[in-house]
Amino acid sequence: MTAAVSDTALLEAETLRIARDLIRIESVNTGDPRTIGDGEARAARLVQSLLEEAGYETHYAESTPGRGNLVARLAGADASRGALIAHAHLDVVPAEAADWTHPPFAAELHDGFLYGRGALDMKSHAAALVATARAFRREGVVPARDLIFAFFSDEEAGGVWGVRWLIDNRPE
Hints:
Elements: H1 8-23, H2 39-53, E1 58-62, E2 68-74, E3 84-89, E4 108-110, E5 113-115, H3 123-139, E6 147-152, H4 163-169
Parallel strand pairs: 3-6
Antiparallel strand pairs: 1-2, 2-6, 4-5
Helix pairs in contact: 1-3
């Protein structure tokens, strides 16, 4: 890479802010198509807006209503080397508020910890990818090969409407 991400404090703060915003979106996947809302689509649209704000061209695809998937590419120095994909899923399993010490979709901070459905699986990881992609763009990073940032729906119920759908319907 031609540059390194230099401001760790900014990257950490941005990751935390994005993670909290994502956790507050109830992108619950029960596995039952009759109970799917628009949370996965809203989460993908949030990621889309953050990446586009940083200058990325994004590709949003709703595999079925409410199931948003998003892909963005950072061009590398040598496209012939093939791309590296960094990905995360934006759906979460259901949460019963009564089972939680802190509200599952409030994204509260307590004693230095972030609490909320998806904090570990995997909205914090998605946030780190978004913040890193934004930092790369800010700092003019040109990786050795293309980097693809992908955010999928439906991982918690098998990926039929997420990664599998994209492979079958949008292989490019």
